[in-house]
Amino acid sequence: MMIAPSILNANNLNLKKDIDEAVAAGISRFHIDIMDGHFVPNLSFGPQLVSDFKREFPSIKSEIHFMSDHPDDLVPAFVKAGADSVELHYEAMSEAKLNYWLDYLADHHVAGALVLNPDTPVKVIKPFLGKIKQVLVMTVHPGFGGQKFIAESANRIKEIREIAGSELPIEVDGGINDQTIKLAKDAGANVFVVGSYLYEAADFASQMQKLERIMAS
Ligand code: DX5
Ligand code: ZN
């Protein structure tokens, strides 16, 4: 089980300090939210952030949550920038395109994952199970940090765990805090994206420890 902090709600003018703090607290993977202003109504980071991140923190993994319906130029750009994994939304492209880009990622030794929005039927993951290294279950509608965990998500996680078997990592993203992490974990999730709960806390490390205690319980 692990926590992947989302830097979306970190201070953009202080990112190095905010990432250092997380690494000092034991984080080994970051969740980087890429928003294109089209697939979701917000804009965030581009490939340069990822290449800067990999230069400064070569041993820390970068997980790209790709919230865009323009994979053709952007997926290769993030791969070139050094992404360790790229998570593609089911809703953002055709199944043929998803297959194409998941194969592309595998050919480039980048872990591919499939992301499902809260309204997308969970059974759509079935044809992709042989190709993906992780499923990302959105527990809010994507676009912004600081939203409330959608309660129905726990059932969706359970269903996905049943479909996917025990080995595939299930990650959750949106509204994870000291209450909802337990709901997600009990439903079968094992990777937890945490944004505002960590980055709006006075003390990142002690907030992390709180979550780690719940994960271990
Ligand atoms: C939402 C993003 C999330 C978000 C998580 O679209 O995908 O990764 O930053 O932030 P919190 O934990 O504040 O919901
Ligand atoms: Zn995300």
SSE string? EHEHEHEHEEHEHEHH
**What gap, in angstroms, lies between the N and C termini?**
12 Å
How many distinct folded domains? 1
Measured by DSSP, the beta-strand proportion falls in: 15-25%
**CATH H-level homologous superfamily name:** Aldolase class I
Ions, cofactors and other bound molecules: D-xylitol-5-phosphate, zinc ion
**Mind summarizing the main beta sheet?**
8 strands, parallel
Uncertain spans: none
Number of strands: 8
Q: What integer is the average pLDDT? A: 97
Q: Which outline best applies?
A: globular
Level-1 CATH class name:
Alpha Beta
Approximately how much helix is present in the residues?
25-40%
* Derived structural class: alpha/beta
CATH topology label: TIM Barrel
| Major β-sheet strand ordering | 1-8-7-6-5-4-3-2
In DSSP terms, counting alpha (H) and pi (I) runs of 4 or more, how many helices?
8
Kindly provide the radius of gyration, computed on alpha-carbon positions and rounded to a whole number of angstroms. Answer: 16 Å
Query: CATH architecture, please?
Result: Alpha-Beta Barrel
Subunit structure: Homodimer.
Organism: Lactobacillus xujianguonis
Family: Belongs to the ribulose-phosphate 3-epimerase family.
Protein name: Ribulose-phosphate 3-epimerase
What is this structure, in a nutshell?
Its cofactor is Co(2+); Zn(2+); Fe(2+); Mn(2+). The protein contains eight helices and eight strands; from the N terminus they run βαβαβαβαββαβαβαα.
What attributes characterize this protein structure?
globular, 217 residues, binds D-xylitol-5-phosphate, TIM Barrel, 8 strands, eight-stranded parallel beta sheet, 37% helix, binds zinc ion
